[in-house]
Specification:
heterodimer; A: 786 residues; alpha+beta; 6-stranded mixed β-barrel; 6-stranded mixed barrel; B: 241 residues; alpha/beta; Rossmann fold; 6-stranded mixed sheet; 4-stranded antiparallel sheet; 27% helix
Chain lengths: 786, 241
């Protein structure tokens, strides 16, 4: 090893504290980049491979009932590659030793063979044999949740008849990567199942012989999806179609797409923050090293080292730190990706998902880190390389200070000399001060963001489950029934109170924008399902007109008073115009609301209801469920407390883990910035501080100058962090606003306090490390050196 | 011993003072048994080559460093038995320092560099008064970067004397200055010594400076090799090197 490289290693060793702090920040940046890029890549690849290998359909539609012969007309639509008719039906399942109601969907497959579209991945067992009526395939997550194996049986109520079904195989489907019940927000594998059955058996049970109620299509690469959808809707309209939709609106794919979109944002934003901060820290460190090594540089040049050699020497210094950070980051990234893989595999069910590090991802991450590092040190290194040897031999000119604006104000009179030193140092190095503040406030903003996200999600759930949904149990019926059924429900064991609702699938349009949703008809003075405004106050559903969530109104560009075109997708399928009576703020879902009797009138029906909400005594649930199981018209039984517990569990699994990681990383930024600055300030001012000690200042008084400056910068950074964090929270809010849910923008004082405390704690910790240096401050040597 | 300018009361009594450093694997005996007194109001020049131990001695007298053996008494206080806190108070109340490289705080003006000491002293003079004393009444609001080396050193002297110390320790005060400027600085030191009666110790390797002292103490190899008295002090203006 040549002497210059040996110098490099020793220099690095002598700056080990700062080098380590910066390497950790670079490592964090590389880690988050690798983590998110790896997950993104893994999900993307798994999805593409899965969709392609298993012929995931492009267009989906449901109808009431259409004769099989219609399918020929569908196949003739230009652009359609394959069309497959199916029978699909809701099913209620009872699992031995599991008391809660289990809902499911049962889908037909061609007798004894794989479907052409949405082919199944057979994890275990075989497809149902042709001719067998009671063999089914079950989805893997449901099977795992209940420990089902091939050969096990389960009981299902299909169209009111109890059937015993034998599991012939356990499968995964590209249609159910994200396997979620129709009314759930997150998967509940114990209570929602997907089953597949031979077409003839299922058609027999549902009276669908020679007919279908579900259709999936694949398209040619050059097909116009919208045109195909219109053609399909046109053909199927008379058969009770609720409207065809593309992959974009397919539930599982939509969740998957939203996750990918969020990951894409994370992949850019978080690494940018960490690598930006590390570039700044490297800049400070390298500028400091080059300042102190002026004379060494001059000597090197005097003896004939070229500018390039000198520049390269300092580039290597940066590169070594980036290498250390990258090694740490790749290691942590691999570990974190592995740790997160379990979480993603739990929610996204692919036949296989490879969370191994891709060489390209690793190379890219390291290159990005190097880019940031070199960008941060470029100026200092170029300065060193270009320095004239003779000039470098002379000591640097004394630094110029001046009185700032603050001192010319009344504050100047109050300030002591140490106060002045602090202020002048801060204003003398404005760029450094500003960058330090930016670093610390970024850290504060990330802490704020982490706790905001957690609190905001919790607030959303509180609103949803305390204010909006107040029922204990939600029932849905196979078909609308008369409201007389409510009396029967009220008499069931443990039921205290019953409210009914009518739900009608519709296509709402306004100004050529349209949206598929349902109109929920609520009883007058409903108390179990409350519609709230933006102040969370209950809103009475007006006797005429529509209410809709402001998100939907915004999407349609409609304001109260506008006429909304309502295309009813059930029954008579009329199209009519209804005034928008008002908007409501609901964090979850996109719905439109009406007075139920008015909805019944529009539907030209009597007092029909689609389902009911119950207030119940939980101790009687077993008996209640037993009775409900015997009621053929009940299609679904939802236990709200279970749904809430599930989603809160999910939040704890994901948001909380993410928040903890974010807090640690954010804290490490504040720590590294403060530590690095304090070290540099200490090194550059040790002579000044030693002089003051000699003049009779105590350790505490001397420490105050250093701590006061850092403390002041930290304190000033806190409100900046709040502002940045609030901005980030708004952006996150916007980015996360989706049809599924909108995070409420709630910022409690606790969040701000938490952010401030996090920053202060990290600063105090780094000062603790500096305190030892101050204690060992050598007055004698400090005085002797120039 | 009865120096002309001193009152005859010893301010410092130094007995068998030793100081040993361990530098890596080498043991350096910087002081090997020093015995001496310093009297109130006198101006002493401590002469010695570099490495003779003179700086070590002044550091211990000034409460910057601990002795390895022997005793240093400042009036009634045993400095060798004092801990860091007591030494800080000792420095704060009794000692003024002037350094070779001035050691001004670059972010403070001349006035503020003096004020930083007067603010923590019991009965200081006003910073302006101290600066007038060193002939810098006109340059009080200048920052160190705006002053010459000689001016900076005079600010340092003003800073050292503003607290009215009983001892002024000057470690090579002219070491970084040309001779003309150095003489000006020495004149200021002499003025302070005569007007305020501050016991003053000037460390130097420059023989010529010895002429302005009441006593010259020579130190070599960590021991006092010779003490001589000047019958009459020479004004710094008449010294040149």
């Amino acid at each position: 090893m040549n002497a210059l490289n040996r110098k490099l290693l020793r220099d690095i060793a002598s700056f080990k504290g700062q080098v380590a702090a910066i390497a950790v920040i670079i490592g964090s940046g590389v880690m988050v980049l690798i983590l998110f890029a790896t997950i993104l890549e893994a999900i993307n690849q798994s999805r593409d491979r899965y969709y392609q290998g298993h012929n995931f359909a492009h267009v989906f539609t449901e109808i009431k009932r259409a004769p099989e012969s219609v399918s020929e007309r569908i196949r003739a639509i230009p652009g359609v590659s394959l069309a497959e008719t199916r029978v699909k039906a809701p099913v209620r399942i009872s699992v031995e030793d599991f008391k809660d109601p289990v809902q499911g969907e049962i889908i037909s497959i061609p007798d004894g063979r794989q479907p052409d579209l949405n082919r199944l991945y057979l994890r275990q067992g075989i497809l149902p044999e042709p001719g067998y009526l009671n063999q089914v395939l079950v989805s893997e997550p449901f099977a795992l949740a209940h420990n089902f194996q091939t050969g096990h049986t389960l009981r299902a109520i299909i169209k009111g008849r109890m059937e015993t079904l034998t599991i012939s195989g356990i499968v995964l489907s590209p249609e159910y990567v994200y396997q979620i019940g129709p009314t759930d927000l997150i998967p509940d594998y114990k209570r929602f199942a997907v089953l597949w059955m031979n077409r003839s058996a299922l058609a027999g049970a549902f009276g669908m012989e020679g007919a279908f109620n579900n259709l999936v299509l694949s398209l040619h690469a050059d097909a116009d999806e919208q045109k195909v959808i219109e053609a399909v809707d046109h053909i199927l309209a008379q058969y009770g179609s609720v409207g065809a939709y593309g992959r974009r609106d397919q539930t599982s794919n939509r969740f998957l797409q939203e996750e990918l979109d969020q990951l894409r944002v994370m992949t850019i934003v978080l690494p940018a923050i960490f690598l930006g901060v590390s570039a700044f820290l490297l800049n400070v460190l390298m500028a400091r090293i080059i300042r102190t090594q002026r004379q060494q540089i001059a000597v090197l040049k005097a003896f004939g080292y070229t500018n390039v050699q000198v520049g390269l020497h300092f580039v290597k210094f940066t590169a070594l730190i980036v290498c250390m950070g990258s090694a740490l980051g790749v290691g942590m990234g691999a570990w974190a990706a592995h740790a997160m893989s379990g979480l993603y595999a739990e929610y996204f069910r692919f036949p296989e998902m490879d969370f191994g590090l891709q060489p390209a991802t690793v190379v890219l991450s390291i290159l990005v880190a190097f880019g940031a590092g070199l960008a941060g040190t470029f100026r200092a290194v170029a300065g060193a390389a270009g320095q004239a040897p003779a000039e470098a031999m002379r000591p640097p000119a004394p630094e110029r200070f001046s009185k700032g604006v603050i001192e010319q104000s009344f504050l100047g009179k109050v300030l002591g000399q140490t106060g002045r030193m602090i202020l002048r140092n801060i204003s003398r190095y404005r760029f450094k001060t500003m960058m330090s503040m930016l670093g610390i406030s970024l850290s504060g903003s990330l802490i704020l963001l982490g706790s905001y996200q957690f609190e905001s999600v919790n607030h959303m759930l509180d609103v949803q489950y305390r204010l909006v949904q107040r029922m204990d149990i939600s029932l849905s019926f196979n078909e609308p029934v008369s409201s007389n059924a409510m009396a029967g429900l009220a008499g069931l064991p443990g039921v205290h109170y019953v409210e009914s609702y009518r739900s009608v699938p519709v296509r709402l349009s306004h100004n050529r924008l349209e949206y598929r949703t349902s109109i929920l008809g609520l009883d007058r003075d409903a108390v179990l399902r409350v519609v709230v405004d933006k102040d969370l106050q209950p809103v009475a559903v007006p006797p005429e007109g529509l209410l809709m969530t402001s998100y939907l109104a915004g999407y349609l560009g409609a304001v109260p008073g506008d006429l909304i075109t309502v295309e009813v997708m059930e029954g008579h399928r009329r199209t009519l115009e209804l005034p928008l009576a008002g908007t409501v703020e609901e964090p979850v879902g996109i719905s439109a609301y009406m007075d139920r009797p008015s909805l019944n009138i529009i539907m030209r029906e009597g007092p029909a209801i689609s389902g009911a909400w119950l207030l119940t005594d939980e101790t009687s649930h077993d008996q209640l469920f037993a009775r409900l199981h015997q009621m053929p018209q009940v299609a679904g039984i939802g236990v709200i407390s279970t749904a809430e517990a599930n989603i809160r569990g999910y939040i704890e699994d994901t948001v909380l883990i993410f928040m903890v990681i974010l807090l640690i990383l954010a804290g490490s930024i504040a720590f590294a910035v403060v530590y690095n600055n304090a070290r540099v300030a200490f090194a550059e001012r040790s002579r000044e501080l030693a002089t003051l000690r000699v003049l009779g200042f105590t350790r505490a008084e001397v420490a105050w100058i250093l701590i006061g400056e850092i403390g002041l910068i930290t304190l000033l950074s806190i409100p900046v962090g709040w502002i940045l964090g609030t901005g980030f929270a708004l952006l996150l809010n916007h980015a996360m606003s989706s049809e599924l849910f909108r995070l409420p923008f709630v910022l409690s004082p606790a969040i701000f306090a938490f952010s401030a405390l996090g920053v202060i704690a990290a600063s105090v910790l780094s000062l603790f490390f500096i305190a030892g240096k101050l204690r060992r401050l050598d007055m004698v040597t400090a005085l002797k050196t120039e | 011993m009865n120096p002309q300018n001193g009152s005859g009361m010893p301010v410092f009594m130094i007995r068998d003072l030793t100081k040993t450093y361990v530098m890596g694997e080498v043991i350096i005996r910087a002081l090997r048994g020093v015995n001496m007194e310093l009297f109130s109001g006198e101006l002493v020049v401590l002469l010695g080559a570099s490495g003779s131990g003179k700086s070590t001695l002044i550091n211990i007298l000034g409460g910057l460093d601990n002795a390895s053996g022997g005793q240093v008494l400042y009036k009634d206080q045993d400095l060798t038995a004092s801990r860091d806190k007591e030494l800080t108070i000792f420095r704060r109340n009794n000692v003024g320092f002037v350094f070779q490289f001035y050691n001004l705080i670059p972010s403070l003006t001349a006035r503020e560099n003096v004020a930083i000491v007067t603010e923590i002293s019991k009965d200081p003079m006003k910073p302006e008064e101290a600066l007038e004393l060193v002939g810098l009444g006109e340059r009080m609001d200048h920052f160190p970067a705006q002053m010459s080396g000689g001016e900076q050193q005079r600010v340092a002297i003003a800073r050292a004397v503003a607290k009215k110390p009983s001892v002024l320790m000057c470690d090579e005060p002219t070491g970084a200055l040309d001779s003309k400027t150095g003489v000006k600085v020495l004149e200021v030191i002499q003025t302070v010594n005569l007007r305020l009666g501050t016991t003053t110790v000037v460390i130097t390797h420059n023989e010529a400076i010895g002429k302005m002292a009441d006593r010259i103490i020579r130190i070599s190899d960590g021991k006092i090799s010779n003490v001589s008295e000047n019958k009459s002090r020479v004004s710094p203006g008449e010294i040149s090197w």
